[in-house]
Amino acid sequence: MLNSLPVLSHASFFAFIGGLILFFFGLTRTTEGMQNIAGGRLRFIIAGLVKNRLKSCLFGLTITSLTQSSAATAVLTIGFVSHGIISLVDGIAVVLGASIGASLILQFIAFNPGWMLFPLLVVSVFLRFFARQTYLRDAASVLFGLSLLMLGLAMMTSSFEPLRDNPAFGQLISVLQNHLWLSVVCSALLAALVQNSTAVIALIIALGASGHLHFASGVALILGANIGSCAPTIIAAIHGSLAARRVAAAQFLIVVAAAGVIALLFPYFIGIISFISPGDADYVVTTFEQTQWYQVSLGQKPFITRHLANANTFFALFAALFFLPFLQQITRLTTYFIRGRETVNEYGLQFIDYRVLNTPPIALSQARSELRRMAQTAQAALHETRLYLGDQKSERLHKLTRYENLLDLLQKELISFLVELSHRFSSYTSAREVALMMHMVADFERIGDHCQTLVRLSLRKQEWQVVFSKIARRELDALAVETVAFVDYVVGALDTGADDVLAEAQTRENFIDRSEEKMRNDHLQRLTTGECAVRPGLIYIDMIQALEKISDHAFSVARCLSGDKK
Questions:
Q1: pLDDT tens digits for 505-528?
Q2: Which of 209, 210, 432, 540 could form a disulfide with 160 if both were Cys (CB 3.0 to 4.6 A apart)?
Q3: Considering the entire predicted model, what is its pTM?
């Protein structure tokens, strides 16, 4: 039974809180800088995802290393699995790779480069204020964040020193060290509560470096923190899709199983980490000369930081490499317990998830996917409209109404998401792309509106019992074919990213403009000669105008794709 609670002095308490805040702020700045630097490359990494469990694992490692957000990687993976881009097996492999990627930032901290702290600050401030290139300013953000990470960890480590003579704190640590399972449970609960296992493991490292924690106890706490790291995915999956629940269940099952295996072989695991890591983890600095040599204070442990970081990375590697061959069996197990068939919400967002807004490159990738879906919907609406102009089949009206409602919904949701996303980017290039995407969203929605205009004109034509002349029908259909082909080309360019998209689009736009003008003049000529009546002529003119407007919006999209939009 504890006689009293361990209490920090006011100075130590504020040093701990300040160090924790600096650590979180440094992690945020490092993440933002890395995301800005990797933004363009991240697009190609995501686009090049291969359906192979080993490469999927490497994909998860790479994405999380660049974004420093395993939760965002998990959300992205769930979207891939839900839409059949990758299988559940490959999705689980991505999540396993994300755990490895999340451990790499702690490897940097473990270098304990205290002498680099102020040089990094000086270099980062110099680059921030004097560098003109965007990538150098982003690099400054990374360096500044890393220096804050080191400073925050050093402050937390120092804040624990006064507790060395506190009997209650010593008793608490003794309980944790004598009951390793309790260490695992407490750490798992803490990581689940704060939903940031990196911060929890950094806290464990600070406790170890201050001399309060034995290496074995620190490893047990790290095992618990890794179990608690599953909490964000589990919480997101509670009301999520079937794929989300299966990915979350598989991740939790693998992490708990890996922790169980490590617990059974705990002495051997400790021995392996001690063998591959320099120095004695529990070596304590006791003389002034040693403090000068190791650049730490009296009573601190200079080697335990590296040992704990290696234990965390080795655990993530073990979980990935040991269970990768058994992912098929794990998938069958999760599918057996979480049954059902994945359903896609046709009239809602399918790719966008607001939880990844704090990871802008991934959020931008989701927005591109949703924009592509909107483009394909507008394309399908135009194809259906052209068919309706020819056969006036009433069953097409219901489908066209669904397309229009979906386009209106996607415009509203995409614009809202892109506005939120635009506030997260500091680089001009990414912010510019978001602005261009907003223009394209509006263009595709207007294409849908003009399709509805054509449908209403066709219904009015039936109501008035209007019949176009043979030559008018032929010209109208020819213009519709050219307009459909133009929209098809632009929608295809969303995927291919053709370099000459603007030149080709300009050629098509000019041809349609000339055709529309010629049709208008020819129609006026037919009116004067009596070949066409006035009433059909009004509908005919409105129809060719609607098709020409669709062509204008297709050209506007092409300008956005080429970056030429003013």
A1: 999 999 999 999 999 888 788 777
A2: 210
A3: 0.73
